[in-house]
Specification:
four-stranded antiparallel sheet, 188 residues, Topoisomerase I, Chain A, domain 4, Gyrase A, domain 2, 4 helices, 2 domains, two-stranded antiparallel sheet, elongated, alpha+beta, 59% helix
């Protein structure tokens, strides 16, 4: 019974750590690096008949080339709300429409903007590390509680070692994501 509790505790910690990695990946997708990517607009909420709705649910977003995005609304009436939503999202884009589609030109990144983006990437990485440390701490506290209620000391120590190995593996994943994104941003 006690070993099952330990396994459950470790599985919960793994799950929380994976969620931290997933969140980091989503945050890094939104940060732009040099070329236009439809994910840049994933956080844009459009006023769809009074209801804030994700842009992807009212239009298709494409990237015809490295410097622009095209937004094809499902309904022509949505062109103005889409333009307003992109402006309101404060992404530094200036949308233009031709009556059929909305076009967003993605300006090239300046050196200063690249450095700011790298800082943002590091900040997101630190947030993910904090989440992973919290998951590790909670798992170890739970193992200590189980030890007080009768879990063998050597099993508790082995479990704590396992939690630390899992934590190290997830921290390595974070580093890999950060290095990749940083390289992507700094490549001109």
């Amino acid at each position: 019974m006690k070993e099952e509790d330990v396994d459950l505790c470790i599985d919960i910690a793994k799950d929380r750590m994976q969620k931290a990695i997933d969140h980091l990946e989503n945050e890094l997708k939104v940060l732009r690096a040099g070329r236009a990517n439809p994910n840049m607009l994933s956080g844009v909420m459009v006023d769809y008949y009074g209801t804030p709705t994700p842009l992807a649910q009212v239009a298709s977003v494409g990237s015809p080339d490295a410097r622009s995005l095209t937004i094809q609304p499902w309904e022509k009436k949505m062109i103005d709300p889409i333009e307003k939503a992109i402006m309101a999202a404060n992404l530094g884009f200036n949308p233009q429409n031709n009556g059929e589609t909305v076009r967003v030109m993605v300006p090239p990144l300046t050196e200063e903007r690249r450095k700011d983006l790298v800082k943002q990437v590091k900040h997101e990485g630190e947030n993910a590390r904090v989440s992973i440390r919290n998951a590790r701490r909670d798992a170890i506290e739970e193992i200590k509680k189980l030890q007080k209620s009768g879990l063998a000391e050597d099993l508790a120590k082995d479990s704590e070692t396992d939690v630390q190995k899992i934590t190290d593996a997830f921290n390595k994943k974070i580093e890999e994501h950060l290095e990749k994104k940083e390289k992507e941003i700094l490549t001109v």
